[in-house]
From TrEMBL, chain A:
Gene name per UniProt: FIBP
Alphabetized GO MF terms: fibroblast growth factor binding
PANTHER family the record matches: ACIDIC FIBROBLAST GROWTH FACTOR INTRACELLULAR BINDING PROTEIN (PTHR13223), ACIDIC FIBROBLAST GROWTH FACTOR INTRACELLULAR-BINDING PROTEIN (PTHR13223:SF2)
A family per Pfam: FIBP
Biological process annotations from GO: platelet aggregation
Protein name: FGF1 intracellular binding protein
């Protein structure tokens, strides 16, 4: 006796969250059944393995049919074939577009092309995420990218509108799309300590402050591309390190302000010139595409690593950067508009610099740094 | 006289890409009705076209309106080649043809293609202007309402139940016409879909004509079936019960519950009493007294099923449960002095020992009634302090005579109803069934389908004679079915022989309504169990005892019926699904020889099915089966029998005895041991089941009964016969002679197997119950969560060494596993009950068995469920006290319609309704269901006739749809499972869309009548035909308020965007 056909269709489509998870994680039916057996479901319900197999197959079939709709979530809301309560619909979409940190960290900043897709095998072996799941996540990134690429208006809003994602997830997708568009290098070994959350935070600030949309909200809102003019302007920061007097003046201003407040004051004083040079050089180079891509690598090399070697605590770094940009403000005849913003970003990378678990910093860093960033922004606008 | 049909094509969405180059579609729409076609403009390059067409007007005969479906075809315009069809929508406009149903069909319909499935949606608005037709010789029957529901629909009242209507039409099957060889599969499928749509329209119209002839206005329990006879043609046949229905004038849902006079009227168990003095001389009143009013006036119509217990009119001080009664009778010329009667009634009321709160309840009624006094008179009579029903022999004879006269005018006194207004069913005899094996031949003249008519007439005649043998004049819960394999066809009919109350059967003329009728108060809690036949002249040997409830009448030891459990029946514990499954191998043969072989096998199958049912019933410790449905399916090389029923313990019937096992060779020691081991296992199972289903009948002292608890001896209540083409009728006596019926003899391995299989049926996991009737006896506190589902399984038998045992085991496993799967899938709904579990078996090919199950899972409240184990007396006391508390505050809500018609406990209902005055302010005039205007409004589907926790306020018309789906890329669509899964989901979607377009939010009495699946994996092809039907309704939640508030956030955004789309 073999089963030829075995289906179950409910008027309200049954969604089993556990099976959905397994399906999203890319397990085959056999693997999924094995995992479910291990979870002890048979004992709980008194079912047999055959029942479990049939149930799993059935759910997989349903998900397979739903997948087409999940590619365009608004369709899921309007379709008539599956009657699914709204809360379930939201859950389906949210889970489908959720991604693994480990995976996103691998592809962040890479071009979402066929070539990258071919490398998914390696990523799969490296991260231990099934290839199927990798493909789904990659395709999700690509799909979102394609849809919002040419779109006007706020990036996050666009994503939310077209994919019905939660606010948090939409922000993450905005970061991914932004990184993919600007192809920031994130895969270098030096940057490995940074989590996706760190990058996402940077992306958000950069979208807010560095993009065309940030400069002039009246204009066509393009959140994807960096404002070329702004990058051009950054060149003029060079004067801060090129002009010896200015450099000294700046240093003395910062030192006076921070004297006694910094635990690593002497190191700071000794290194000020180096640090300042590093920062300004990174900023000035941003007119070249290649250097833009290496922004994060450069920042880590030129600023974060020196600080780290001197064992700067995070709070000190923040104080320093605050003061560093604040002092520029009081320098004569200096165009201040741009400087602050880049330092705000530099600031971000310090959480990692003190060698603490990145995640712990993420929250603290986000709130406080955000606060600072806004302050800076206010000052310099 | 013509009607005018108006159609407007608004927009499309989610259309498929038809032009690969641009990834877009240039869509336009053809609207066709009859032979007239209109076209919209081409909407270029869009997947979401906005046609916004003018109104297309068709001027057509109402005959055509009934027969023809509106056909909407969406096409892709192509300048150079032929236009490509995207898909079609067939809309049955029948619901627009009667006034009380829908007025407009408007909404998004899935565009369906028989090859590709659903491809986008189209928004259509359809209206009909109908002119009155006074032509006596008309061929149309517009205005006759159709209901699939096999009981009187909830917001109607049956004035007269006329009886059986049937009709069949035949045609050639387009699939087998010569032209099919040259046309595409799509064209062929569409021809078939259209033909069947036409035929069912015609059938419905013809049945409507018959109903009008009988002076009825509705068909209830309408069941339409297709017989795909292959080469020999296509038969569409339908049966139903003609009724005269009256709409209950006040749909209570729209009125604030507290001050509706009509509602107030409903509180009272009205009774027609032609002669106010009968109480002194007439028959004494039994426990329950529920009757109908036959007033032609609509002004005081009310829910039919009010009963005095619900009313708490029953004085608790009275020594007998009978209370004073208020009889309301329609005006009649002889009773002209209203005041006199009123006075008298007051007098009578005061005479009887009424507690204060009773009179407080009664007095407003009296007052209200006076306002109706032009039509009504109120006469109260303090009936029945006398002892309970003494329906003696002469009285019974009188009743029989009356019924007979009412029924004998009819050719077939059959009723397709399975649930009845209280008082309708007097006695139930037992199941009657008839089968006949026929050889199909080509239907030569489709206009004269004489052979098929004759076949059915023959079978019905047989059923009628069986019923007569059981001392019954009518057959209720009647149904017909066929099973076809090649050119052999088994026709089956079955029903429950019964004696009915003639009051409902009088021919419905106006005079008939006014006519004074004799009132019998026969409906007691146990009345229907009492034998209708003569004790001394029993049609079959049966063991009778005095009824355990009233102790006056004889009852059989077991009762098998095809109907639902009457609402007033006293049941102990819970019920459960009982199935008998059976396979028999058969030699492959041709034509005549094949038919003979089958008809030779049939009696044995019936016998075994019956034995299995009986054994399983005993094993469950129960004594009655309801909703029995025996399906015999014929295949190439085997016959399958599947019987499903719901077992219950009826308090009125004797306690079932156990099962005894006897071995043939008592000398063998080890064998003996084995036997005793088995015996022990059986006894344990019975005990376990009794506990599981909470069967603990009250101990009855023997003096009261006057006879010892009966030795279980006899078991057969099935009377059946087979006939083959030769008209030879064989009556089969299923009683096991004179020996004790419950002794199972184990004399060979077969018998051993049988006993084993008895014990292998595992009970459902805890928290689950199942039944195949409308409601689960013993559970009456449903919560509102329901999940209807269809599950299909096909297994392939290994062709090697097929024996009957192996087959049986395979089939048994298939069904058991299917049930287990369902329990597992629905585990999140625990505690819940699978209701109306409907199994269908078919044998599509040599070694394939297909089982289709449709059922609904309903959750219930566990805590309250525990209370139901209390005895009925306690319950009514408990209820009465609740009534007391609530009376002053909500005097009029206690007996609102739903309480009677639904199995909700009064305690709960009161609390539910208590909340309603709060909500009234906000939702008083909410006529639309809460989510009707959201994009994809939720449409519930259920095979039941009601929706738990909700009130049906309007019936919008019958849904009867037929779909074909074919694929030539089976593997790509996910194999057979993927194909069928998608198709069934699409069918559900189309049903929901049609209901939503009619303005409804649920389908009740939903049934999948056919699911014919054929595959050819080698060719990568499959085809499936599905036929579904049901009643589209509007329901309103009793707890409207909470639902709305919980849905608000999500539906809001949806509704806002669709409203925009719809209004454009």
């Amino acid at each position: 006796m073999t089963s030829e056909l075995d289906i179950f269709v409910g008027n309200t489509t049954l969604i089993d969250e556990d099976v959905y998870r397994l399906w999203l994680d890319g397990y085959s039916v056999t693997d999924a059944v094995a995992l479910r057996v291990r979870s002890g479901i048979l004992e709980q319900t008194g079912a047999t393995a055959a029942v479990l197999q049939s149930d799993t197959m059935d759910h997989y079939r349903t998900f397979h049919m739903l997948e087409r709709l999940l590619h365009a979530p608004p369709k899921l809301l309007h379709q008539l074939i599956f009657q699914i309560p709204p809360s379930r619909q939201a859950l389906l979409i949210e889970r489908y577009y959720a991604f693994d940190e480990a995976f996103v960290r691998e592809v962040l900043g890479k071009k979402l092309s066929k070539g990258t897709k071919k490398d998914l095998d390696d990523i799969s072996t490296k991260t231990g995420i099934t290839l199927k799941s990798c493909r789904r996540q990659f395709d999700n990134f690509k799909r979102v990218f394609k849809v919002v690429e040419e779109m006007r208006g706020s990036l996050v809003d666009n994503i939310q509108q077209h994919f019905l994602l939660s606010d948090r997830l939409a922000r993450d997708y905005a970061a991914i799309v932004f990184f993919a568009n600007n192809r920031f290098e994130t895969g270098k070994k030096k940057l490995q300590y940074l989590s996706f959350g760190d990058f996402a935070f940077c992306a958000e600030l950069m979208i807010q402050n560095w993009t065309l949309g940030a400069v002039d909200s009246q204009m066509d809102d393009m959140d994807m591309d960096l404002d070329k003019e702004f990058l051009q302007d950054l060149k003029e920061l060079k004067v801060l390190v090129a002009d010896k007097d200015l450099l000294d003046l700046h240093k003395s201003l910062v030192c006076t302000a921070l004297r006694g407040k910094l635990g690593v004051f002497s190191e700071m004083e000794a290194n000020f010139k180096n640090l300042s040079r590093g920062l300004v050089n990174v900023a000035a180079k941003l007119t070249h595409n290649k250097d833009v891509r290496d922004l994060f690598v450069d920042l880590v090399e030129k600023f974060v690593e020196p600080c780290r070697s001197d064992h700067w605590p995070l709070s000190d770094v923040r104080f320093f950067l605050n003061q560093y940009s604040a002092s520029v403000h009081s320098l004569d005849g200096f165009r201040l508009e741009c400087g602050g913003t880049i330092w705000a970003h530099c600031n971000l990378h310090l959480p990692g610099s003190s060698n603490s678990p990145a995640s712990a910093f993420q929250v603290a860093g986000t709130t406080s740094v955000h606060h600072h960033a806004q302050q800076f922004f206010l000052y310099f606008q | 006289m013509p009607g005018k049909l108006k159609v407007k094509i608004v927009a499309g969405r989610h259309l498929p890409v038809m032009d690969r180059a641009s990834d877009l579609t240039d869509a336009f729409v053809e609207v066709k009705f009859g032979n007239t076609t209109f076209k919209t403009d081409v909407y270029l390059k869009s997947l979401n076209p906005q046609w916004n067409s003018e109104w297309f007007k068709f001027e057509v005969d109402d005959e055509d309106l009934q027969d023809e479906p509106l056909q909407i075809t969406v096409l892709d315009h192509d300048t150079y080649s032929a236009n490509d069809a995207i898909g079609k929508v067939y809309i049955d406009i029948d619901p627009l043809l009667y006034s009380e149903a829908a007025t407009v069909i408007s909404g998004w319909f899935p565009i369906y293609d028989t090859i590709h499935g659903i491809r986008g949606e189209i928004n259509v608005v359809v209206k009909v202007d109908l002119f009155n037709d006074l032509n006596r010789f008309r061929q149309s029957s517009c205005g006759v309402k159709f209901f699939c529901t096999t009981s009187i629909p909830k917001c109607y009242r049956a004035v007269i139940i006329h009886g059986f209507v049937e009709e069949l039409v035949v045609n050639e099957d387009p699939e087998y016409q010569w032209i099919d060889r040259i046309r595409t599969p799509r064209a062929s499928n569409e021809a078939r879909q259209r033909l069947i749509s036409l035929m069912s329209g015609e059938l419905q119209r013809k049945i409507g004509l018959k109903v009008l002839e009988m002076r009825g206005n509705a068909v209830v329990g309408y069941l339409q079936c297709f017989d795909l006879e292959g080469e020999s043609g296509l038969v569409v046949r339908a049966i139903g019960t003609a009724c005269t229905l009256d709409k209950l004038s006040s749909p209570a849902a729209f009125l604030p519950a507290c001050n509706s006079p009509s509602k107030e009227m409903k509180e009272i168990p009205f009774n027609e009493d032609p002669n106010p003095n009968t109480h002194s001389s007439g028959p004494s009143t039994p426990l329950k007294n529920q009757t109908y009013s036959f007033s032609p006036s609509k002004s005081y119509s009310r829910q039919s099923s009010s009963s005095d217990t619900d009313l708490s009119l029953t004085p608790k001080t009275a020594p007998y449960p009978q209370g004073p009664r208020i009889y309301l009778c329609p005006s009649s010329p002889s009773l002209s002095c209203g005041s006199l009667h009123l006075k008298k009634s007051c007098l009578l009321l005061s005479e009887s020992s009424l507690t204060p709160h009773h009179s407080s309840l009664v007095s407003p009624v009296l007052r209200k009634s006076v306002s109706f006094s032009e039509e009504l008179f109120l006469a109260a009579s303090g009936m029945g302090s006398g002892s309970a029903g003494k329906e003696g022999g002469p009285f019974k004879a009188l009743l029989r005579q009356q019924t007979q006269s009412a029924l004998e005018q009819r050719e077939f006194p059959f009723f397709t109803l399975t649930a009845f207004p209280p008082g309708f069913l007097v006695h139930v005899g037992g199941v009657v069934s008839a089968r006949s094996v026929k050889l199909l031949d080509r239907i030569h003249n489709p206009d004269e389908p004489e052979t098929r008519d004759a076949w059915w007439a023959e079978i019905r005649q047989e059923i009628k004679s069986h019923a007569k043998a059981l001392g019954c004049h009518a057959v209720v819960g009647y149904s017909e079915s066929t099973s076809i394999c090649e050119e052999v066809c088994i026709l089956s009919a079955s029903g429950t022989a019964a004696v009915l109350n003639p009051r409902f059967l009088q021919d419905g003329t106006v005079e008939g309504c006014l006519e004074q009728r004799l009132e019998e108060n026969l409906s007691t809690r146990c009345g229907f169990c009492h034998i209708p036949y003569d004790e001394l002249n029993m049609p079959f040997p049966a063991h009778l005892t005095y009824c355990y409830n009233c102790r006056k009448q004889k009852v059989p030891d077991v009762l098998f019926t095809t109907i639902d459990l009457p609402t007033d029946a006293t049941v102990i514990g819970k019920g459960c699904l009982i199935q008998a499954r059976l396979c028999r191998l058969k030699k492959k043969a041709q034509a005549e020889a094949n038919a003979t072989a089958i008809s030779n096998l049939l009696p044995f199958m019936e016998y075994e099915v019956h034995t299995q049912l009986m054994n399983k019933l005993k094993l469950k410790g129960m004594n009655a089966l309801f909703g029995l449905r025996i399906q015999i399916t014929v295949g190439e090389n085997m016959l399958m029998g599947l019987a499903s029923a719901t077992g219950v313990y009826l308090a009125a019937l004797p306690t079932p005895g156990g099962i005894q096992i006897a071995g043939k060779t008592p000398n063998d020691g080890s064998y003996e041991q084995h036997i005793s081991h088995m015996q022990k296992k059986i006894n344990d199972t019975i005990a376990k089941n009794k506990e599981l289903y909470e069967i603990n009948p009250p101990e009855i002292s023997e003096e009261i009964i006057g006879s010892p608890i009966p030795e279980p001896r006899q078991r057969s209540r099935l009377l059946r016969s087979q006939s083959e083409s030769s008209d030879e009728v064989t009556e089969l006596d299923l009683s096991h002679g004179k020996k004790d019926a419950f002794v199972l003899e184990i004399d060979d391995t077969d018998a051993m197997e049988d006993v084993h299989s008895l014990l292998t049926d595992v009970p459902p996991p805890s928290g689950f119950y199942s039944c195949n009737t409308e409601i689960m006896p013993g559970i009456n506190n449903w919560t509102s969560e329901i999940q209807m589902f269809t599950s299909v399984r096909v297994i392939r038998l290994s062709s090697l060494n097929l024996t009957n045992q192996a087959l049986n085991k395979n089939f048994n496993d298939l069904c058991e596993n299917l049930l287990k799967s369902l329990y597992f899938k629905l585990r999140s709904m625990i505690p819940c009950c699978l209701c109306h579990v409907n199994f269908t078996v078919s044998l599509p090919e040599d070694e394939l068995i297909q089982v289709t199950v449709t059922a609904v899972a309903i959750t219930f409240d566990k805590n309250q469920a525990l209370q139901t184990t209390k005895t009925p007396v306690e319950k009514s006391l408990q209820r009465a006290s609740t009534d007391n508390e609530e009376l002053l505050q909500f005097p009029l809500e206690l007996c609102s319609d739903s309480l009677h018609s639904h199995p909700f406990p009064p305690v709960k209902a009161v609390t539910v309704e208590k909340a309603s005055p709060v909500g009234d302010g906000n939702f008083r005039n909410r006529s639309a269901p809460p989510c009707a205007n959201s994009t994809v409004g939720v449409v519930k589907m259920t095979p039941l006739s009601f929706i738990p926790g909700a009130k049906i306020t309007k019936y919008l018309g019958i849904i009867n749809m037929f779909f074909i789906r074919e694929t030539t890329s089976l593997r790509e669509e996910g194999g057979v499972s993927g194909f069928l899964h998608a198709f069934i989901a699409e069918v559900f979607a189309m049903v929901r869309a049609h209901v939503a377009a009619l303005g409804g939010n649920a389908v009740v009495s939903y049934i999948m009548k056919q699911c014919v699946f054929m595959e050819n994996p080698n060719k990568n092809q499959a085809q499936c035909l599905i036929n579904v039907s049901g009643d589209a309704v509007v329901f309103v939640r009793e707890s409207d308020l909470e639902v709305v508030s919980s849905q608000q956030p999500t539906t809001n955004c949806q509704s806002s965007c669709t409203e925009g789309e719809v209004t454009t």
